[in-house]
Design brief:
The chain is an alpha/beta fold. The protein has two domains: 100 residues, no CATH class; 194 residues, TIM Barrel (Alpha-Beta Barrel), CATH 3.20.20. The protein has 16 helices and nine strands. A seven-stranded parallel beta sheet has the order 1-4-5-6-7-8-9. Helix 11 links the parallel strand 5 and strand 6. Helix 8 packs across helix 9 and helix 9 crosses helix 10. The longest helix has 25 residues. The chain is globular and about 60 Å long. The mean pLDDT is 97. The structure holds coproporphyrinogen III. Coproporphyrinogen III binds next to strand 3 and strand 4.
Length: 346
């Protein structure tokens, strides 16, 4: 039953003795069972589009650790691919895409309504998971935020400063905004289909929100997020939504009210005491342990984990890392983090 799920209770604003836990990238290369299934699938994208195997890797960290939530195994760059961009991954380097920098590139993209043929296997993964997960585990769907997805579509790859996307915004604002609009429409439809298939929560990843400053943060991070949230809540009034505006800094303050998200995911750059006073006052927060602790472990991991649990103990909190776990992490440190969270007196 929904109200027995600890993640849904936190998202509804309940303060719990022990915060529920999950971890960004919890299905990933640090786990030997993930590497084995990925090898079976062939490569990363084949794994994303193979519903049975994608469901299997989603379940692996649930079996191993008993996390309170499972996050759909997929990628934020599947939406650009469904819009018609070429997408491939270069081992050891990351994603590559065909670029959108001219009107002709934009005109070659598909309408948002045409993404579902390509994305149907993802909805099937969600359906499989909604039947396979333990009764107490919450299923989280996700998509990238329009700005973050656009940075990859414009540059054709990950960039340290999102320079190509900022340049297009300045040189051809109409084209830049048309691209954001197309991604926004596709994202609303994509998340809505995940919810129809059984996702109980959705999360919007704006991993590069931190490079938008001042009025641009409002226009290109807050406004698209608010549009996605209000469209989803119109179609699915009770769906809780988590917003992750990574490296937003002071702009985390007021983000929940401005966008309508039910929970603000915090990176590890923000001090938990500060975030409790200025962000958690508006509702549930998620985060914010540094993922480097999953590599280094030891007493520092225990101390920082306890400090975060205590700092957020007076309000609704979902324990998580501040960003995804990295491939060099030690699976035993994940267990140490979980044991520490569950044994810390609030
Ligand atoms: O959290 C989860 O476990 C759910 C699955 C998930 C993945 N990517 C799987 C993945 C989610 C939510 C994402 C989001 C994602 N993807 C983001 C936003 C969040 C963030 O981390 O900032 C971004 C920017 C991407 C784009 C992307 N996908 C990059 C830059 C890379 C390469 C990075 C790398 O470490 O090689 C990916 C690949 C990717 N997505 C992997 C996984 C498990 C590693 C792929 C592999 O097995 O080789």
């Amino acid at each position: 039953m929904a109200q027995n799920k600890t993640i849904l209770r936190a998202l509804a604003g309940e303060v719990q003795d022990v915060p529920p836990i999950w971890m960004m990238r919890q299905a990933g290369r640090y786990l030997p069972e993930y590497r084995a299934t990925r090898a079976q699938a062939g490569d990363f994208l084949s794994l994303c589009y193979n519903s049975e195997l994608a469901a299997e890797v989603t379940l692996q960290p649930i079996r191993r650790y008993g996390f309170d939530a499972a996050i759909l195994f997929a990628d934020i760059l599947l939406v650009p691919q469904a819009l018609g961009a070429d997408l491939w991954f270069v081992t050891g380097e990351g994603p590559r895409l065909s670029t959108v920098t001219t009107q002709a590139d934009f005109d070659a993209l598909k309408p948002a309504a045409d993404i579902h043929d390509r994305l149907n296997p993802i909805y099937e993964t969600v359906r499989l998971l909604s039947h396979a997960l333990p009764a107490e585990t919450t299923l989280i769907g996700f998509a990238g935020a329009p700005w973050t997805v656009a940075t990859y579509m414009i540059a054709g790859r990950g960039t340290p400063d999102q320079g190509p996307a900022h340049a297009l915004r300045q040189e051809n604002r109409a084209l830049f905004e048309a691209l954001l609009e197309r991604i926004t429409e596709a994202t609303i439809d994509y998340l809505s289909m995940q919810i129809d298939a059984g996702a109980e929560v959705v999360k919007i990843f704006d991993s590069w929100a931190g490079s938008l400053k001042g009025a641009d943060f409002q226009t290109y991070a807050v406004d698209p997020c608010r549009r996605i949230v209000s469209a989803l809540k119109e179609r699915h009034p009770s769906i809780p939504i988590i917003g992750f505006a990574r490296e937003a800094g002071d702009a985390y303050v007021g983000f929940a009210k401005a966008t309508g998200v039910d929970c603000v995911a915090l990176d590890s750059a923000v001090d938990p005491e500060w975030a409790a006073a200025h962000v958690q006052v508006d509702g549930c927060v998620q985060g914010n342990l540094a993922s480097s602790h999953m590599v280094t472990g030891g007493q520092d991991l225990i101390d920082d984990t306890r400090a975060i649990v205590k700092a957020f103990s007076k309000g609704p909190h979902i324990f998580n890392l501040g960003h995804g776990i990295t491939p060099d992490a030690d699976p035993e440190n994940v267990q140490l983090m979980i044991d520490t969270v569950r044994s810390t007196r609030r």
